[in-house]
Write a structure and sequence with these properties.
alpha+beta; 3-stranded antiparallel β-sheet; 237 residues; 8 helices
Length: 237
């Protein structure tokens, strides 16, 4: 749970009493295969899922079978926290790689937040940040050119991974295939392949085999036009 505590300390100002209360939660740890759905659209989960290791995505699939990836989730995140109050899933939660997940019963989470009002505020702020990230993703897919979409996604993921200590200088994991990148950016796989190749040929960033290597910080920043305010990583702001 180290990643969860590092992240929450950064974005919410978690204190030691809060950490002790979270540690006391009964968590059922399970290993999950890549591509396997964790919580399906239309299901009624009785547990929330903590990503301990691995990567997961939220996604919606149209009646014609086209999938849109809505968000990427990393270790230390609870991507279905809203299921505490929205009892029926309106999207899929899917593991992208072999993942270790911690399942926490809704009853245990409710008891903890009722007994610890500060933790109720911590998790409320966390869901509000999640909504802020959703808003930025809408702008990204709807208004930025495809190359800037990918650059922005890369910079965001890098900054979120840095908070939990999973960024190693210029390189970090982004274990999405070209098809999955296209689903996240709202473009075709052919277009995604072209953009990935363009960014590599322009000496900006190299994306291959689930790893990202930043080749030119200045060019990446210029292309992404990234403003990190929406990540709300300072609890005093």
């Amino acid at each position: 749970m180290t990643a969860l505590f590092r992240r929450l300390k950064t974005v919410t100002g978690l204190d030691e009493a809060d950490i002790a209360a979270i540690r006391a939660l009964p968590i059922n740890v399970r290993h999950w295969e890549p591509g396997r759905t964790i919580a399906a659209d239309g299901s009624r989960p009785s547990e929330c899922v903590l990503v301990i290791e691995g990567f997961c995505v939220r996604a919606k699939t149209t009646v014609t079978g086209q999938r849109q990836i809505l968000s990427i989730h990393i270790p230390g995140e609870i991507p279905d926290l809203q299921s505490l109050h929205l009892h029926r899933m309106d999207h899929d939660l899917v593991a992208m790689v072999p993942s270790t997940l911690g399942f926490i019963a809704h009853t245990s989470l409710r008891a903890m937040t009722r007994a610890n009002p500060n933790l109720a505020e911590v998790f409320w702020r966390d869901t509000l940040i999640d909504a802020a990230i959703f808003r930025e993703w809408i702008v990204n897919v709807g208004q930025r050119p495809a190359a800037s979409r990918l650059a922005h996604t890369v910079v965001e993921l890098r900054q979120r991974l840095a908070v939990i200590g999973r960024e190693a200088g210029d390189t970090f994991d982004m274990p999405l295939t070209q098809e999955q990148i296209s689903e996240a950016l709202g473009i075709t796989p052919v277009h995604a392949n072209r953009i990935i190749r363009q960014l590599r040929d322009d000496g900006i960033v190299d994306i291959s085999r689930g790893r990202v290597t930043v080749l030119d910080e200045a060019k990446l920043a210029e292309l992404a036009q990234f403003d990190d305010r929406y990540l709300h990583q300072d609890p005093s702001v």
